[in-house]
């Protein structure tokens, strides 16, 4: 503890570095591939980021360009193709809209529920909490069909509502927030009552601001899950491509048999993964704190 | 400004009765402390007065008006909590302003962005701001108004909590151990301030603590509570000098009172450790214990109290000598002046004699008034 | 106008505030589960005009058909590989990272990246990385074969072993495995991706748990004569992390039972159903093959198993905490 | 009017559809075509449409796998096309290959018009064959095995049989090539020597060609990269190989190998356009019909040939519009030449049809991963399992 | 049992120097307290002695042997922490046994399942158990041995922490504010116990606190530390009666000493609020302040100290009267007997005169010895 030999530090770094290499390998493959020309991908040449020898754009040829017109750098071609093949911006925008609305609705529903479970005494509270714990176990894949039929009966398939509504209640969010609220002193709630706030006002004016760190942790879980979700959008969005979320955009490249769009496909993957990584990097420190504070230990 | 009256309050949690038919009246402007050991129900009582909890039986009157049907926010009481319970996300100014904002602004005017531009909100907002500043000036925290609670010391938070309570000029203050999270120095300083505040504002204070020194130094009257009952209600002097119950005697005073075994001899004289004290019970009851405060004992060549010195604590201003006395439950403490000579030393035998008031208790622990034996004989 | 007692007001507020969540949970989660439970006794298929009750036929199928036996094997294998490995790696990483003087934030971020990344995107990348000939994994291994010294060391030929005697040596001679196409390897590959993706999550939870251990305890241990890191871990760290561990194990187990995306994207349950995990089976039956009844029966079985697991773990915690 | 259209395999047909719409819009400026998200494959196509039927969000026109049409007809989702055909004065039903049209005819009614049709063919890297000393293209599986042995001896990857194409297509091909239909009387028709022979043919490739259990996409990539000598799969990928070929080697296609001789018949792959509109508006229905007609006949069909490896279903396209196209693209003509062999691509009857497909796939995979040697035994087990499902 | 000697210890965190060349020797068996305001570096010093932190400069000797190269586990010191630092997952017995298990058992013998069956482990285990029981008996916690720390009260935890320190008979105990987490009553009780323990065991104690009453009552000697330096080292009496520095005078004593402005007149006499005190500086220096303990002042009809009564605190045993005196930094506290009459009332003017020792300080805050002016004149 006191006199740490730098040898042990070095060893720790070594082990962690090897781990980091394994962890980062797929990311490296993804980014590297998105920089390469098809032939470099096929032959696994080109080093880390491809030789960037000009290639001829196939889609440009298809539109009737000549070889000379259509020569571009592989990286440009891949990313241009990624955005040309599918309206990626639109999909990303959808992704943002969907994840943000899901998160906001989840907070809207979970926060009062968690407050009730943590701070209010009422008959059946334990049963209510048990119900939340049970719901925590239900994966959407298992109930997708009944849920789909439900939405279909309401005429809500192929709509933003279909992407958002099923997620409005997050058992995990309720659980997490409840754990956090347990650590908020009861006195604070009583003080708010003395100050003239009703229970509803307490939730939004006292508990919400106090819960920001835990909410941040939850936000990351929620946003990650729904930004990346491929299964549910695929089930409910059958008609309108304008409602696609980023993973569905990625799927456009993942036909049953082609392996030939690897460059653009990896470019798309890179584009989709990047926002989350950036968001995480920004929120990283408070995220770990938030988890710790939410008593998830 | 109002009186508080509790009549026959009872409260149980599950099967355990926490409050047992408690009666208590607090006069207008009075500073009344409620003291008692941990878990005796002080906070519960306070919370019932505040309206945060309801009694199973009994009633609460505020300013002579039954308050049972009023919710906490409508009782016009302010409460200060042990943990201060400040809103961590609001600045000091924001914290102090909350009670006013909740009361003086309409729901619409409180809205985040829209609110301030609504008619009337401006002027109300300015009023509130002025009031907050005035309170902050009074508590000497005006320079902290823009900080958040996390950036304040314990004492400063304490004052902010007081400020939040004061800002709306409530009928009475309820304080639940507001000093217990402060360190010794801070506690000393703040308790004077709170007492001064009571005098300055003239508002009724109901103050809960388990620290009897706090209660002694601040209160007009003290109610000692144990096991859900109020054992005695009186001025600090009364409690110190004339405790009605041995439990009260034990609770009040630091270092604690010395309880020594006593008897009543055939002639009705009270014997302390077998020595005649020259006193007898006024009403002639049997006496089981005598209570002697440390300052009511002094070393004397052949005093009735004798034992080996266990410890000598020199506080500079006083010396407390603890002696192990046969028959006493715990070591007997004797207060000496720092100039005492010879200075008692650990291990030697010390004799002490009563030099101050003796308090007698019967076997049930009830106080029994004593009178000089001769005087009584004359009567 | 008399106000109700504060306790009653509180209870009312409690109901009111919990109500939206309750309604939504019932409509969105409980009701579908109930529907699934009902449908599991039917032969309902999407698009059919009606359906018949088939009693427990769907369930007895689960017992009789070999595919479901393989499903159980694959699911258990996945859970039993991924849970201990990602919990262990998460703990190891957290401990190592905590011991560092510099670079903590960097490793934390790197190890958490897979948790953030889209599984679908990463599955595609892994598929590419594990491609038998073009993939970086096999290319890398082959490159090692090309370095004589390394090849000798890794294949054991320095010790006089035949070139094909070791796994590596065989790989050099016959080519390295089809990670996703060989039933002997597929479940391991999928599990590996699961671990890769999930251990960062355990790590973060463990880091949170570690930061909750008061440093004074370590000082006390030092004063008590604890000299080695291992002793420190045994005496203090591991027991103090017990609640974290239970939580992490529970969450990881449930998540492992719920593995789906990688299976769907990479192996479709194959080869020869070696990666036919239960959630994928539910999906295949109910959505792909339109056998809603069977899928529903699987759903019911799945929930029963997961609930049993979490109840058992709950018991363990309670015993631990209240002992 | 706007009509909504759904199709499968976006990576193959996106360009095709774009060109068709271009042409169609020129001819019908008042009709706007909106494409739905493309289906991943034919099963996905059917399931999506089934779900959409529940939600009442069906597209107006949906391109469905030839073997998946029956389900939609049975459930009343597809609408008969006969009324529209009857209105057409110049509609030449004969323009379609009879066999193809028959694939879309149920109870005498036509429910779909074939859009793109495929047959299995052989893909060859002639450079690799020659390097290994193989002369010409193999005509039978025995010859394939023979060639494989030489190529393997030459240290190269010999062949890939795309055994897991949707709907057990190549197993059905192996059976049809011996003249045996896969389904007879609602049961799997493999309790015969041809059934075993079909399985044996697969095992031969696995054993003699050292075939690896990789995905079709991976194999295609290897072939395009010039690392795989032979590949047996649908003609659909000819365009893909052309487009992604690495290096300069001789790419040639050849007829699908038979068992013991030339194939007697081959299952028709591909998809058909179906009218799935729920609209009551005659204008919409008419527009949808116009699109189906355009896409499946004449110029629309010609685009299929130009942009994919599929065969246009329409004689007009094949013989009139594309005469010199095939001369320039002999690799794409292989499938056209096999047209006379076209036979039904069976769907397994009943609710468990897809489960049966998957079960058969599992058994085939046993062979492919080298875990099965006793073909008659495997056949017996498989038949029992599948027939159990088909009951 | 050993002496402790610190020589020229310095320590900085970043750019701020926390310890500045501290020298300190603790005799064998001595109870030495280190007091000082929060943040003055007490804990840092203790941790350097313990080996949990290293000094930038200077050396630590334990029992006369330099300990700089030894790690904490090898220094044979025991430490009791403010938060007790008990292992929450071990029982009381387990907690107390840890230091013995770590030292007396081999690594193999400590293994969970295998360990106890190894040769020798049995008998060692029994030895340890007996020792734990003995210590628990001594501390009166034998009935708690099977509980976990979470199920104990603060005072009980405190004793367990002590037990863990005592069990292996270390050369010296280091205690870092071990009482600060206890409530007032418990603190009172425990401090006597700890002092008694020191006497009984005869082991060296180095005790850190910022509570001077604690230090006064327990210690053989006290070191007052401020700003990284030791201002004075001496017995409690010395510090109380003869502080070397105005900061020490202010720190020691509760209520705090009254510091009043003073002057030296032309004849060398010391003037207190303009009144001649009849004293002069022994060495003839100029005097800026006079320190008077509350008990060194008493109400007197025309005393030199005069002011309006600000507060009257009746503790029962004493009454503290605070008066606002012109020129004094803070209210002046006068201690009266509870029997004083007339009882001072808030708002009236009170005069007070020195009745006890006066402590004089020069402008730099250094103490200046005083002598009676007449006496000096005679010499
Ligand atoms: N909501 C509750 N449910 C059950 N028991 C309770 C509840 N609130 C308090 N109690 C119990 O009632 C008793 C009195 O509690 P209360 O908080 O009034 O004590 P207190 O005198 O304020 O003690 P302290 O000085 O420790 O604050 C305690 O034994 C406590 O455990
Ligand atoms: N590891 C550290 N890094 C930086 N500064 C430190 C560290 N430890 C202590 N300090 C600083 O050193 C100063 C002295 O700390 P120390 O803990 O020794 O004070 P203390 O006298 O024990 O105070 P307290 O009575 O509050 O415990 C404080 O200002 C503290 O902020
Ligand atoms: Mg309380
Ligand atoms: Mg300290």
TrEMBL record, chain A:
Domain (ABC transmembrane type-1): residue spans on this chain: 92-283
InterPro entries, per the entry: MetI-like, MetI-like_sf
Gene Ontology terms: cellular component: plasma membrane
Family under the similarity heading: Belongs to the binding-protein-dependent transport system permease family.
Transmembrane segments: 12-31, 91-115, 127-148, 160-181, 202-225, 261-283
Matches recorded under Pfam families: BPD_transp_1
Predominant cellular place of this UniProt entry's protein: membrane
Keywords per UniProt: Cell membrane, Membrane, Transmembrane, Transmembrane helix, Transport
Protein name: Carbohydrate ABC transporter permease
PANTHER family recorded: ABC TRANSPORTER PERMEASE PROTEIN MG189-RELATED, ABC TRANSPORTER PERMEASE PROTEIN MG189-RELATED-RELATED
From TrEMBL, chains B, E:
GO cellular component: ATP-binding cassette (ABC) transporter complex, substrate-binding subunit-containing
Limits of the ABC transporter domain: 4-252
GO molecular function, one term: ATP hydrolysis activity
The protein's name: ABC transporter ATP-binding protein
UniProt xrefs under SMART domains: AAA
UniProt-listed Pfam families: ABC_tran, TOBE_2
Keywords: ATP-binding, Nucleotide-binding, Transport
Protein family per UniProt: Belongs to the ABC transporter superfamily.
Subcellular location: Cell inner membrane
InterPro entries, alphabetized: AAA+_ATPase (IPR003593), ABC_transporter-like_ATP-bd (IPR003439), ABC_transporter-like_CS (IPR017871), ABC_transpr_MalK/UgpC-like (IPR047641), Mo/tungstate-bd_C_term_dom (IPR008995), NA-bd_OB-fold (IPR012340), P-loop_NTPase (IPR027417), Transp-assoc_OB_typ2 (IPR013611)
Statement: the UniProt record of this protein carries the keyword Protein biosynthesis: no
Membrane topology: Peripheral membrane protein
Superkingdom as given in the UniProt entry: Bacteria
Location, primary (coarse class): membrane
TrEMBL record, chain C:
Membrane topology: Multi-pass membrane protein
Domain ABC transmembrane type-1, chain residue ranges per copy: 72-313
Superkingdom to which the source organism belongs: Bacteria
Localisation: Cell membrane
Main location: membrane
Keywords associated with the record: Cell membrane, Membrane, Transmembrane, Transmembrane helix, Transport
Transmembrane segments: 15-39, 71-97, 109-129, 185-208, 235-254, 291-312
Gene3D superfamilies linked: MetI-like
CDD domains with a match to the protein in the record: TM_PBP2
PROSITE patterns, alphabetized: ABC_TM1
Cellular component terms (Gene Ontology): plasma membrane
The UniProt record lists the keyword Secreted: no
GO BP terms: transmembrane transport
Family statement drawn from the similarity comment of this UniProt entry: Belongs to the binding-protein-dependent transport system permease family.
Protein name, per record: Sugar ABC transporter permease
Organism: Kaustia mangrovi
Lineage of the organism: Bacteria, Pseudomonadati, Pseudomonadota, Alphaproteobacteria, Hyphomicrobiales
């Amino acid at each position: 503890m006191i006199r740490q030999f730098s040898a042990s530090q070095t060893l720790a770094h070594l082990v962690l570095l090897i781990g980091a290499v394994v962890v980062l390998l797929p990311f490296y493959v993804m980014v590297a591939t998105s920089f390469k020309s098809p032939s470099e991908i096929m032959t696994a040449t080109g080093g880390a980021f491809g030789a960037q020898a000009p290639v001829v754009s196939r889609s440009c040829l298809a539109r009737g360009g000549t070889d000379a017109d259509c020569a571009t750098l592989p990286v440009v071609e891949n990313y241009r193709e990624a955005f040309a093949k599918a309206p990626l911006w639109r999909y990303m925008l959808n992704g943002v809209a969907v994840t943000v609305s899901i998160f906001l609705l989840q907070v809207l529903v979970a926060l009062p529920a968690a407050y009730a479970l943590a701070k209010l005494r009422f008959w059946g509270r334990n049963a209510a909490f048990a119900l939340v714990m049970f719901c925590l176990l239900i994966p959407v894949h298992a109930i997708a069909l009944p849920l789909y039929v439900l939405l279909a009966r309401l005429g809500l398939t192929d709509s933003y509502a279909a992407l958002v509504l099923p997620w409005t209640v997050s058992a995990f969010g309720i659980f997490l927030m409840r754990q956090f609220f347990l650590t908020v002193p009861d006195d604070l709630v009583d003080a708010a009552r003395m100050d003239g706030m009703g229970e509803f006002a307490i939730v939004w004016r006292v508990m919400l601001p106090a819960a920001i760190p835990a909410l941040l942790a939850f936000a990351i879980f929620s946003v990650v899950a729904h930004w990346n979700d491929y299964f549910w959008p695929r089930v409910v969005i059958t008609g309108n491509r304008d409602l696609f979320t980023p993973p569905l955009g990625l799927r456009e490249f993942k036909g049953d048999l082609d392996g030939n769009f690897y460059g653009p496909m990896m470019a798309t993957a890179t584009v989709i993964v990047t926002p989350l990584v950036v968001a995480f990097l920004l929120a990283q420190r408070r995220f770990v704190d938030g988890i710790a504070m939410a008593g998830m230990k | 400004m109002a009186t508080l009256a509790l009549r026959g309050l009872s409260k149980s949690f599950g099967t355990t009765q926490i409050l047992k038919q408690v009666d208590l009246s607090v006069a207008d402007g009075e500073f009344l402390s409620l003291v008692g050991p941990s878990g005796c129900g002080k906070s519960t009582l306070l919370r019932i007065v505040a309206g945060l909890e309801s009694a199973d039986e009994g009633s609460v009157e505020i300013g002579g008006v039954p308050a049972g049907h009023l919710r906490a926010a409508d009782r016009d009481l302010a409460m200060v909590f042990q943990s201060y319970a400040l809103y961590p996300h609001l600045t000091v100014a924001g914290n102090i302003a909350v009670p006013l904002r909740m009361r003086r602004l309409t729901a619409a005017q409180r809205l985040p962005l829209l609110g301030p531009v609504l008619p009337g909100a401006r002027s109300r907002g300015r009023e509130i701001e002025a009031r907050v500043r005035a309170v902050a000036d009074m508590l000497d925290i005006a320079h902290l108004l823009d900080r958040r609670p996390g950036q304040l010391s314990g004492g400063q938070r304490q004052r902010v909590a007081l400020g939040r309570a004061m800002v709306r000029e409530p009928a009475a203050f309820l304080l639940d151990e507001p000093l217990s999270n402060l360190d010794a120095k801070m506690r000393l300083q703040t308790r004077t301030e709170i007492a001064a505040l009571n005098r300055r504002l003239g508002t009724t204070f109901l103050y809960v603590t388990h620290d009897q020194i706090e209660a002694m130094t601040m209160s007009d009257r003290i109610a000692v509570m144990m096991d859900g009952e109020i054992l005695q209600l009186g001025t600090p002097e009364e409690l110190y000098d004339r405790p009605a119950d041995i439990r009260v005697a034990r609770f009040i005073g630091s270092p604690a009172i010395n309880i020594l075994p006593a008897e009543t001899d055939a002639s009705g004289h009270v014997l302390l450790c077998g020595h005649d004290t020259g006193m007898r019970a006024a009403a002639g009851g049997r006496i089981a214990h005598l209570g002697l405060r440390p300052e009511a004992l002094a070393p004397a060549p052949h005093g009735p109290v004798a034992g080996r010195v266990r410890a000598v604590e020199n506080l500079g201003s006083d010396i407390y000598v603890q002696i192990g006395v046969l028959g006493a439950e715990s070591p007997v403490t004797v207060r000496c002046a720092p100039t005492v000579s010879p200075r008692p030393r650990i291990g030697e035998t010390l004799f002490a004699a009563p030099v101050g008031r003796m308090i007698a208790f019967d076997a049930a622990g009830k106080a029994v008034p004593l009178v000089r034996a001769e005087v009584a004989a004359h009567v | 106008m008399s106000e109700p007692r504060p306790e009653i007001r509180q209870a009312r507020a409690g109901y009111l505030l919990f109500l939206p969540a309750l309604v939504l949970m019932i409509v969105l989660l409980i009701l579908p589960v109930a529907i699934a439970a009902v449908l599991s006794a039917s032969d309902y298929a999407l698009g059919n005009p009606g359906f018949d009750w088939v009693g427990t036929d769907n369930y007895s199928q689960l017992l009789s058909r070999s595919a479901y036996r393989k499903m159980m094997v694959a699911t258990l294998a996945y859970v039993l590989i991924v849970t201990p490995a990602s919990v262990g790696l998460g703990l190891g990483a957290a401990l190592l990272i905590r011991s560092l003087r510099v670079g903590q934030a960097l490793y934390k971020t790197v190890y958490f990246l897979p948790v953030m990344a889209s599984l679908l995107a990463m599955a595609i990348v892994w598929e590419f990385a594990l491609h038998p000939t073009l993939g970086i994994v096999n290319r890398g291994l082959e490159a090692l074969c090309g370095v004589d010294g390394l090849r000798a060391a890794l294949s054991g030929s320095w010790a006089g072993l035949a070139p094909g005697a070791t796994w590596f040596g065989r790989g050099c001679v016959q080519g390295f495995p089809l990670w996703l196409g060989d039933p002997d390897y597929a479940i391991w590959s999928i599990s590996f991706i699961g671990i890769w993706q999930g251990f960062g999550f355990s790590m973060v939870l463990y880091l949170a748990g570690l930061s909750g251990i008061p440093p004074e305890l370590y000082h006390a241990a030092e004063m008590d004569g604890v000299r080695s890191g291992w002793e420190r871990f045994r005496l203090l760290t591991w027991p103090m992390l017990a609640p974290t561990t239970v939580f992490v194990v529970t969450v990881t187990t449930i998540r492992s039972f719920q593995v789906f995306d990688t299976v769907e994207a990479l192996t479709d349950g194959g080869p020869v159903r070696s990666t036919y995990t239960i959630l994928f089976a539910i999906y295949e039956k109910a959505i792909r093959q339109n056998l809603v009844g069977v899928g529903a029966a699987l759903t019911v079985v799945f929930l029963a198993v997961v609930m049993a697991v979490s109840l058992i773990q709950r018991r363990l915690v309670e015993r631990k905490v209240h002992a | 009017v706007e009509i909504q259209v759904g199709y499968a395999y976006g990576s193959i047909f996106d360009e095709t559809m774009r060109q068709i719409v271009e042409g169609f819009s020129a001819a019908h400026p008042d009709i706007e075509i909106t494409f739905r998200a493309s289906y991943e494959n034919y099963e996905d196509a059917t399931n999506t449409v089934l779900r959409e039927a529940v939600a009442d969000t069906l597209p107006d026109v949906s391109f469905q796998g030839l073997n998946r049409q029956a389900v939609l007809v049975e459930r009343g989702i597809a609408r008969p096309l006969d009324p529209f055909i009857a209105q057409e004065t110049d509609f030449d039903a004969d323009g379609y290959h009879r066999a193809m049209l028959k694939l879309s005819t149920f109870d005498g009614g036509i429910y779909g018009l074939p859009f793109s049709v495929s047959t299995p063919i052989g893909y060859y890297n002639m450079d690799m064959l020659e390097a290994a000393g193989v002369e010409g293209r193999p005509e039978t599986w025995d010859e394939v095995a023979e060639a494989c042995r030489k190529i393997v001896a030459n240290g190269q990857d010999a062949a890939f049989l795309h055994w897991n194409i949707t709907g057990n297509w190549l197993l059905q091909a192996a059976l049809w090539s011996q003249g045996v239909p896969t389904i007879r009387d609602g049961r799997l028709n493999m309790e015969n020597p041809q059934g075993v022979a079909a399985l044996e043919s697969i095992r031969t490739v696995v054993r003699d060609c050292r075939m690896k259990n990789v995905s079709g996409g991976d194999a295609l990539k290897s072939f395009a990269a010039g690392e795989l000598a032979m590949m047996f799969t649908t003609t659909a990928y000819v365009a893909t190989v052309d487009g992604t070929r690495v290096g300069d080697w001789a790419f040639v296609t050849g007829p699908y190998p038979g068992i013991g001789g030339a194939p007697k018949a081959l299952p028709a792959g591909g998809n058909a356009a179906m009218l799935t509109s729920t609209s009551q508006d005659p204008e919409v229905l008419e527009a949808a019909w116009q699109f189906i007609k355009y896409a499946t006949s004449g110029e629309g069909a010609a685009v299929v040939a130009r942009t994919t490896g599929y065969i246009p279903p329409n004689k007009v396209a094949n013989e009139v519009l594309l005469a010199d196209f095939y001369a320039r693209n002999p690799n794409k003509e292989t499938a056209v030449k096999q047209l006379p062999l076209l036979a039904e691509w069976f769907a397994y009857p009943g609710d468990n049809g897809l489960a049966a497909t998957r079960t058969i796939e599992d058994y085939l995979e046993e062979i492919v991963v080298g875990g099965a040697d006793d073909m008659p035994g495997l056949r017996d087990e498989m038949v029992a399992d599948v027939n159990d499902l088909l009951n």
